[in-house]
């Protein structure tokens, strides 16, 4: 079945159409203005599970702080985590530094797909992206955008989460890959999925490969790709305390061996300080992490004495230490509320 679909595709026309469209319509993104493998690698890691608009300011600040591999390799962990705070999936930042420390021992930045795969935190997609974009190596990428484009182009009715289906689509991606311009082609397909071949209501009239799309021909573009349903998110309540004193806020730091957010600073939870006296609610919000939605309530409180295991942190220095996203969101909402009060 997949072989017949491949035979039906006009590979040369698809390559030409994508190349022309991409050159005219690609978004001006900072990592597209460079061939530096370090900068391309940083962008690809940041873009995992994160929207482009959210990544841009982090990317630019990160490269100002850590402009090359040696700077990243030698950075104090607290500074690294502070620069990453808010992007989530913090193992990415730690793996970046582990990889940087491996790279500085090499004669040069790894150029081959197989060598890139050996770096901590680098999988098939990232290795193919860096190898093709930075070094022109003929390796096709397969991310969510590419899977969506190919599944519609081929009218693939299998579950794209299935390894069998992914293997078939990976084979097609490799066949379509323009081996003379692999980096440009990979970015063109990803850009098509990000801006035209959208998950819902794809903009088919604007698609440069519309004549080759079997899903469009069959009128099922809005039904594909097929993917196994996600499990519904669990809900948990979280009660945080805002305790201030002399321009400082009481925080605690997760230990280095914490399974989540190791080294990050948090607002205390109500259960941690049973002796705190409540002084009214300061903020409330929802925050989802993977499949868990936290219903967060933040209350102002006072303490008769400094509890062990906590630290007073000057509010002016909060930007220089890694603060968890929940704590940061709470502090931002509280500050906004304070400004809006007459």
What secondary-structure arrangement, pairings included, does this model have?
Elements: H1 2-8, H2 11-25, H3 37-46, H4 52-65, H5 69-73, H6 77-84, H7 91-103, H8 113-117, H9 124-135, H10 144-153, H11 163-176, H12 182-195, H13 214-218, E1 234-242, E2 244-245, E3 248-253, E4 265-266, E5 277-289, E6 292-302, E7 311-314, H14 325-340
Helix pairs in contact: 2-12, 3-4, 3-9, 9-12, 10-11, 10-12
Shape, principal axes of CA atoms: globular
CATH class of the largest domain: Mainly Alpha
User: What share of residues are in beta strands?
Assistant: 5-15%
Number of helices: 14
Indicate the radius of gyration in whole angstroms.
24 Å
The CATH superfamily title of the largest domain: Hypothetical protein, domain 2
Give the SSE string.
HHHHHHHHHHHHHEEEEEEEH
Helix content: 40-55%
Residue-averaged pLDDT: 91
Architecture overview:
The structure is a single chain. This protein has helices spanning 2-8, 11-25, 37-46, 52-65, 69-73, 77-84, 91-103, 113-117, 124-135, 144-153, 163-176, 182-195, 214-218, 325-340; strands at 234-242, 244-245, 248-253, 265-266, 277-289, 292-302, 311-314. A hairpin with a 2-residue loop joins strand 5 and strand 6. The protein is globular, with a radius of gyration of 24 Å. The protein folds into 2 domains: 2-218, Endonuclease III, domain 1, CATH 1.10.340; 234-340, Nucleoside Triphosphate Pyrophosphohydrolase (Alpha-Beta Complex). The protein has 14 helices and 7 strands. It is of the alpha+beta class and 342 residues long. Mean pLDDT is 91; it is low at 1-7. It starts with a helix and ends with a helix. Helix 2 crosses helix 12 and helix 3 (37-46) packs antiparallel against helix 9 (124-135). The strands form 2 sheets. Strands 2, 3, 4 and 7 form a 4-stranded antiparallel beta sheet that branches. Strands 1-6-5 form a 3-stranded mixed beta sheet.
């Amino acid at each position: 079945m997949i072989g017949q679909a491949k035979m039906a595709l006009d590979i040369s026309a698809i390559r030409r159409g994508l190349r022309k469209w991409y050159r005219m319509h690609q978004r001006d993104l900072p990592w597209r203005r460079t061939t530096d493998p370090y900068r391309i690698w940083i962008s690809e890691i940041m873009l995992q599970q994160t929207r482009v608009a959210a990544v841009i300011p982090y990317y630019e600040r990160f490269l100002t702080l850590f402009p090359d591999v040696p700077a990243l390799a030698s950075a104090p962990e607290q500074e690294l985590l502070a620069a990453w705070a808010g992007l989530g999936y913090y193992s990415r930042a730690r793996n970046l530094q582990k990889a940087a420390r491996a790279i500085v021992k090499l004669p040069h930045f790894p150029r081959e797909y197989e060598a890139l795969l050996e770096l901590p935190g680098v999988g098939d997609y990232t290795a193919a992206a860096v190898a093709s974009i930075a070094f022109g190596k003929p390796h096709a990428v397969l991310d969510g955008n590419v899977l969506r484009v190919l599944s519609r182009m081929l009218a693939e009715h299998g579950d794209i989460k299935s390894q069998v289906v992914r293997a078939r689509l990976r084979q097609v991606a490799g066949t379509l890959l323009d081996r003379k311009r692999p980096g440009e082609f990979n970015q063109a397909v990803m850009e098509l999925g990000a801006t035209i071949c959208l998950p819902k209501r794809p903009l088919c009239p604007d698609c440069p490969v519309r004549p080759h799309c079997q899903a469009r021909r069959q009128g099922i573009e809005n039904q594909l790709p097929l993917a196994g349903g996600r499990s519904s998110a669990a809900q948990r309540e979280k009660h945080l305390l805002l305790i201030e004193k002399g321009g400082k806020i009481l925080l605690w730091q997760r230990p280095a061996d914490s399974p989540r957010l190791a080294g990050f600073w948090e607002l205390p939870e109500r259960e941690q300080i049973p002796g705190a006296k409540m002084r009214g609610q300061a903020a409330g919000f929802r925050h989802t992490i993977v499949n868990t939605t936290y219903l967060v309530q933040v209350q102002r409180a006072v303490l008769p004495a400094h509890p062990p295991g906590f630290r007073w942190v000057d509010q002016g220095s909060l930007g220089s230490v890694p603060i968890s996203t929940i704590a940061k969101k709470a502090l931002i909402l509280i500050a906004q509320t304070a400004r809006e009060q007459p």
